[in-house]
Amino acid sequence: MRKLMVFWGLILILAACGGEAETAPSASSGQAIPPKAEQIICTAAYRSSVEVGIEREETLTFSDVDDEQSIAFADMTFHAAYRTGAADNERNLRVWVTDAADTAVYHTTLFQLVPNSGPQDQFVGGHGFTGLNYSYAPDSTAELQYWCAVEAAGQ
């Protein structure tokens, strides 16, 4: 009898933990499918100290081909790598910040993207689909801000 109660208890727990899996928007779900980005544009803004305004701002532009680019600043380097997912169905954008010598990684983020749509800009202030991010050099007063946005067909 005790084994039967444990069995039914486990069934109830599994049923309670189960749920509808989160899926990408589709035409059948009634959600709008954002068009696949023709370009992803990452902007990096650098200042040597939080006491001063932005001293330099540059962009990296990615089309729908595997690519890796970087921008070197005085105390940090901003890197971004876009992968189409053609080889492994893992479309993504990875961004990271290193020291100027490219020996220490200060910050890294992977944005996993739906293979055939989006991403979709969602942050106010023009901060795209990544939002506004900050990275700091530990032995410096420098600050690097970055964000990435999309440019879809017809924009």
Write the topology of this structure.
Blueprint: H1 2-17, E1 37-47, E2 56-62, E3 67-72, E4 76-83, E5 92-99, E6 105-112, E7 133-136, E8 143-152
Antiparallel strand pairs: 1-2, 1-8, 3-4, 4-5, 5-6, 7-8
In short:
With 155 residues, the chain is mainly β. The chain is 10% helix and 40% strand.
Please tell me about this protein's structure.
With 155 residues, the protein is mostly beta strands. Helix content is 10%, strand content 40%. The chain has one helix and eight strands, in the order αββββββββ. The protein has one helix at residues 2-17; strands at residues 37-47, 56-62, 67-72, 76-83, 92-99, 105-112, 133-136, 143-152. The strands form two sheets. The chain has a four-stranded antiparallel β-sheet with strand order 2-1-8-7, with no helix packed on it. The chain has a four-stranded antiparallel β-sheet with strand order 3-4-5-6, with no helix packed on it. The protein is globular. The N and C termini lie far apart (66 Å).
Largest sheet: number of strands, sense, barrel closure? 4 strands, antiparallel
What portion of residues is helical?
A: 10-25%
CA-based gyration radius: 21 Å
Task: Count every beta strand, where a strand is a DSSP E run of 2 or more residues.
Answer: 8
- What's the N-to-C terminus distance? 66 Å
What value does the average pLDDT take? 84
Q: What is the ordering of alpha helices and beta strands?
A: HEEEEEEEE
Poorly predicted runs:
18-24
Number of helices: 1
- Strand percentage: 35-45%
Q: Structural class, from helix and strand content?
A: mainly beta
What would the principal axes of the Cα set say about the shape?
Answer: globular
Strand order of the largest sheet: 2-1-8-7
